[in-house]
Every structure is written in structure tokens, then in C-alpha cells.
Amino acid sequence: xxxxxxxxxxxxxxxxxxxxxxxxxxxxxxxxxxxxxxxxxxxxxxxxxxxxxxxxxxxxxxxxxxxxxxxxxxxxxxxxxxxxxxxxxxxxxxxxxxxxxxxxxxxxxxxxxxxxxxxxxxxxxxxxxxxxxxxxxxxxxxxxxxxxxxxxxxxxxxxxxxxxxxxxxxxxxxxxxxxxxx
Amino acid sequence: xxxxxxxxxxxxxxxxxxxxxxxxxxxxxxxxxxxxxxxxxxxxxxxxxxxxxxxxxxxxxxxxxxxxxxxxxxxxxxxxxxxxxxxxxxxxxxxxxxxxxxxxxxxxxxxxxxxxxxxxxxxxxxxxxxxxxxxxxxxxxxxxxxxxxxxxxxxxxxxxxxxxxxxxxxxxxxxxxxxxxxxxxxxxxxxxxxxxxxxxxxxxxxxxxxxxxxxxxxxxxxxxxxxxxxxxxxxxxxxxxxxxxxxxxxxxxxxxxxxxxxxxxxxxxxxxxxxxxxxxxxxxxxxxxxxxxxxxxxxxxxxxxxxxxxxxxxxxxxxxxxxxxxxxxxxxxxxxxxxxxxxxxxxxxxxxxxxxxxxxxxxxxxxxxxxxxxxxxxxxxxxxxxxxxxxxxxxxxxxxxxxxxxxxxxxxxxxxxxxxxxxxxxxxxxxxxxxxxxxxxxxxxxxxxxxxxxxxxxxxxxxxxxxxxxxxxxxxxxxxxxxxxxxxxxxxxxxxxxxxxxxxxxxxxxxxxxxxxxxxxxxxxxxxxxxxxxxxxxxxxxxxxxxxxxxxxxxxxxxxxxxxxxxxxxxxxxxxxxxxxxxxxxxxxxxxxxxxxxxxxxxxxxxxxxxxxxxxxxxxxxxxxxxxxxxxxxxxxxxxxxxxxxxxxxxxxxxxxxxxxxxxxxxx
Lengths: 182, 668
Fold this sequence. Notes:
The structure holds 2 protein chains of 2 kinds. By secondary structure, chain A is of the alpha/beta class. Helices cover 37% and strands 18% of the residues of chain A. Chain A has 5 helices and 7 strands. Chain A has a 5-stranded mixed sheet, covered by helices on one side. In chain A, strands 1-2 form a two-stranded antiparallel ribbon. The radius of gyration of chain A is 20 Å and the shape is elongated. By secondary structure, chain B is α+β, with helices and mostly antiparallel strands. In chain B, strands 2, 3, 4, 5, 6 and 7 form a 6-stranded antiparallel sheet that branches. In chain B, strands 1-10-9-8 form a 4-stranded antiparallel sheet, with helices on one face. The radius of gyration of chain B is 27 Å and the shape is globular. Chains A and B meet through α1 of A and α3, α11, α12 and α13 of B.
């Protein structure tokens, strides 16, 4: 046994592996977006299956969670139960909206019939809203404070604990309205 | 049905690899020839299962069988067949499956070519390869299963990521990268085998070096192909940005390059055995680190796969492989006793040593720059990034030092050189240095680093070409052979040496081109109204107008820019702005007009929808083409060195001495 080699090897490699281990908890999914702290781009979209258009402006005073998703996206399907279970927990102060991203309406309808829906999923004709929100890939979720500013953006499937954290963050923002929000 | 068959094949691969690893290690411990034979068979089974699983996936992709999970995820009825095939490696699960294919082919090749050789080391080597293979099979079977069954298949899928579809380089870059990364498993296993068997003779070292060179060639090409893609597609005019994922591919290349050199000292002098083995082990560990960095989501990069649950699993593998490597090094390194010693003084040997020192220094420099943001975030909780200035300031001097060695090293004789010998060897190439330096000065080079690079580059070019020419010239003079005949003889006798200098020639050219292109370019940014012109160097660029193009996945605004040089019409370049539905911001595609002297590179900064004004970013990038050409030279040179020589230079394989047990003749 060559102790010098052992010690040198461990000294070089252990901190590196340790650093990677610590960084695993790091969430590069919580993405910086130029929209953070800004007013959420307004939209008025027709829900899947018909009904009156949902207008973001009309939801002022409530915390809004906007989830961009598609039926063909495997992680979206994974997070679907987390999202459908959520509205019940939060009550009427938190509004959940799905925005369907690059998908066919019949696919979405049959998916929602099968897996259940707890909040409206909106049709984004031509992907205009997705572009306005800078959607990079699905799922992406935006958390909008009652004053209409975007508080955080999450890329990837949400877990219940993450969702709670983001919603609370957005709700807390109600008291500390940012002056630069226009 | 297809999905179940796929899962069965992956399971078979996992079983064969796990069993083969155990059998290999057992055969290594007990030196059992029968055990080795079984390990070989299991290696073939593993390879066959992986090849079949990949063929099955390709079949499913082509048949648009959306009941297979991966096909439902990346397949589409609309994409052409070649996109369908290449989407095998366009997304996470498929790329890990493809990784398995590469590993299968490598294990097959390395097991087969060494089937009658190195019986004391091969059981260990096969054991280590298959242990790695077992891990990746486990990944495919579990966390990254591409063959899960979709009970109610969708009628169509979304198709692969559009960003990966827009350029042919993005299709061929990943296979090269995987061939480079995965291939490092083979030298890793052989280096571990050298430690475990306690033997690293010249014969085994030669086999090892061959299997190190092959992935080295692929990795070299992959790194440059990645840069080329960035240059042609991303539109910022550069080919390297010190992005963590780019660095991840560079790190194992640096250590592997060092190992390729120190391996020569092992072969020739029987020294630096432990060091060489360490470099090879490190090269593989760095490829695993690179894989972790791209797949874990720890680093945010344009290159990484976004969603990935396999990060922790790869980290566990990285930790285990690292512990394994450190443990066998500590336990066995003393057995690899040197058979010679390094004489102090000015010699080629010493240049090799310095070369290794600089490559390792470079590795640590890049590694520290890459992980430093993580350290800062872990310690202070703030996000930061290490920018270009750090890398440029640190890497350029070391790179220049290596360029110096690239000239001086091969000029020096082996062993200690007398002052007279050293003078005779070192003085003539100064002509090359002065020549290239003067040429640079005449062409307007004023940056000190670039001038130094040109001086050293000229020196190295002189040495390289005279080393290539010298034996040919001698044959012509002494034996009166014709040029072609002499070249044919020289390349067949000393193929590896010739190949090495071809690679060096490519490397010299790459370094000169990098130094020139990164300091001697010219850039302008201009706002042009329709019909307006701007001058850049010898060119006059006129904005003619905008075309609107609709493509299935994107809308694009294409700017038409007329290029004239001294009144001569060179045609219209069309940089464009693409609007993907799936992208945050519009993605520009530059237009490049390449010549041997320089590239004219145009990209769109902004463009109004009416096509009245264009914000144009125009660059003259000197010598860029030579980076791609020289990399081709390096790749071909490397492959050329791997061709079997007519005169087999390898010692006869030691026969399996006794039935059922290996030759006990081992140097302890």
C-alpha cells in the first residue's frame, strides 16, 4: 500500500466528488428569466372544451400558477397528478391554469378525460403566449403574485414540496409590491 | 411487443455484463484460462445484446412504433427517415442506449483483438469493462429505460428537439463524442488490469496505447465538431466559449493527450508506468464527470439534456469508479517498478516530461475554472460564473508553452544531448520561427501573444516537416529510391512515428489558426436601411431586403446581404433570424463565406418585420477554415497510426501455457 498515493488521490478526488454531491441539490431548473419581477404578459385564452375565455388581468388579487404543458411530454404527464391535486389544497386564493403547448385539442381532451382535470387548460393558438413567456420546453411553470408580477419560473416537473414553496413565495409577494413592476 | 423484446435484450446485456465482470475478476485472481474464455464469451454476449437492442430501437423509430416509450417521446410521423434514425441519440434515454451500443462495439473490438494476447492482464481488463458496462446497462434497464411500453400509444409524437435538427454537424457531433467518451473505458480497463496484474510491459503498453489513440481521435474530432457547430449555428462568431459542457469534453482530452505521450516513455524506457496509468484512469473518470455534468442538471448549458433523473446514479458510479481507481493505484502502483531512469539534461525525454506537466497543469486550470462557480455557490450561496478572461489568461500561456515543446521536443535527441548535439538540433528550425514570425509581422500581426505563437508555431512546423521528410530524403539519397517509393517504405516501417508527426502537423496548424483567428479578426456592427452599404475590410456589404420563410418548425426572417469585393460581385449572403415556437428568443443563423485566408461572417442583430432596417454583425475571422482542416489532418493521422503494419511489430503472443491455468511467469 502506497500511502502517499492514497492520500494524494483522495485529496484530489474526494473534494471534487463531494462538490458534485453538494451541487446535486442545486436546482438549475429554477431558471433565471428576464421576466422575473416584471408584470406577467397578459393573455386571454379559450379553455379546452369550450367556455368563456380566461383573462389573466381578471385574476388580479389572486396568486396564479401558469403551467405550460403538452400530452406528448413525458415529464408533464408525470407532474399531472401533483398539479390536479393542488387546487383543492390552496382554495380559491390560488388559481391554476394550464396552457397547452404545441398539441392537438382532441389529444388534450382525451388525456384530460382519462387523467382528470382540476382547472382549465387553455388553447394557445399559434403559440403566441408561449412565445411571450419565453417557453423553452415543457413543462415550465410560472408563479404570478396577486399584483401581477412574475415571482418565479420553474423548468421541469414539479414536486408537491417545490410547488408549495413557490406558491408561498408568490403569496408573500402580495405585501411587498415591487416598485419597478409596471 | 417491440418494447418487451427491447427490455429483454437490455436485461440480457445487464446479466451478461454483471456475470462477465465477476468471471473476469475471478479469472484474474485465479489466473484461469477457462475463466478468461468465459469472460470473453460473456463480453461477446453483452455486445450482441446491445447491438440488437439498438437495432431494435432504430427499427421502432423507423416504423414509428409509438408503443415504445422513447419513440413516443422523440418520434414523429412528419420527420424524414434520417431524422428518425438520428433521433436515437437526440434525447436522454436514447443517447444512453446509444452509449451502450458504443461500449458494446468497443468491448467487442478490444476483447477480440486481444483474444490471444496478454492472458495475465486481459481477465482483469474484461472484468473492468464489463463492470462499467453493467452500470450503464443498469441505467438503461432502470432510470433511463427507453423501452417502456406505452399502453395506449399516441397517434403521433412531437419529433426531436428542433435545435438539434437544424444542422448536420449536430447530427454527427454526438456519435463522435460518445465514441470518444465511451472509448476511454477500454484504456481505463487495461490500465486497471496493469495495476491489478502488477505488470505493464512494452507489449501490453502498445496494445493499451492503440486503444487509447482510437477514442482520442474521436474525442479530438468531437471537440472541434462541437466548436464548428457553435460557429456555424449560434451566430456569435466564435467556436469556443468555455462553457462547462465544452470544458467537460476538453478535460479528458488533455489527460489522454498527456498519456499518449508518457506511454511512449513507458514503451521506450520502462519509466513513468504508474504516472501513465494514473493519467489513463483520470481520463476515464473525467469522461464520467463530464457525463455527470451534462446529465445531472447541475450545470445549465445549451448543450445539456434538460430533464434528467440519472444524475445521482451517475454520481454514485463516479464515486465508486474513483475510489476503485485510487485504491488500486495505492495498492499496486509500487509493483509497476521502473526498468530504467530518466537522465537529467536537455533531451527529448525531458521534453516529454514537461509536456506532461503542462497538460496536467492545463487540466487543473480548466477543471478549477469549471467547478469554481459551484464552490462559490456551495460556500457563499451566490451564483457566479467564471468568464472568458480567466480561461484566456490562464490557458494561453500554457498553450504557448506546449506549442514551444511541440517544436523543441521532437527536435531533441533521446537520452542526454551534448551541447553540440543540442545546438545542431535546435538551431536550424529557428529559420521556420523567423520566417513565420516575419510573415505575421508583414501581414500586420501586432499582438505579442500571437507573435510568440507564430514564432513557436513556425519552429514546430519546421521540426515537424523535417522529421517527416528526413527518413524519406535519406532513402532517396542513400538507396536511390523515388519519392513515392521512399514514402511508402517509411510509412510502412515507422507508421506510428509518421502518424505522430502528421498529428503534430495538424496540431501546429490548429494552434496557429486559433492564435490568429482569436486576435486578428475584425468586427463591425451596423444599422443598415434597405439599400444602404457598409464597408468591412475589402468587402462592401449592402442590405437588399428581407424574405419571410415559413418552415414546419419555425418562421424565419432572412436578410439578403450583397457582398462585393473591389467591385467584384461575390453573391448574396443570407443570415437569418429563426423564430421557433419552442424557443425563448429568436435564434439567429449566421451566414459564412469561407476562404482559405479568412471567413466573412454575418449575423443578424435585429431585423424589423417590414424588412426596412437590419442590425448587422459582420466579422472577418482569419484562418478559421484551417482549424477544421487541421483537425481533419489530426484525425486522419491518428487513424493512420492505428492501421495494422505489414511487418507485425508485436512480440509473439505468449501461448496459454498450461491447460486451465495461465503462464505463471510474472515479474514481481
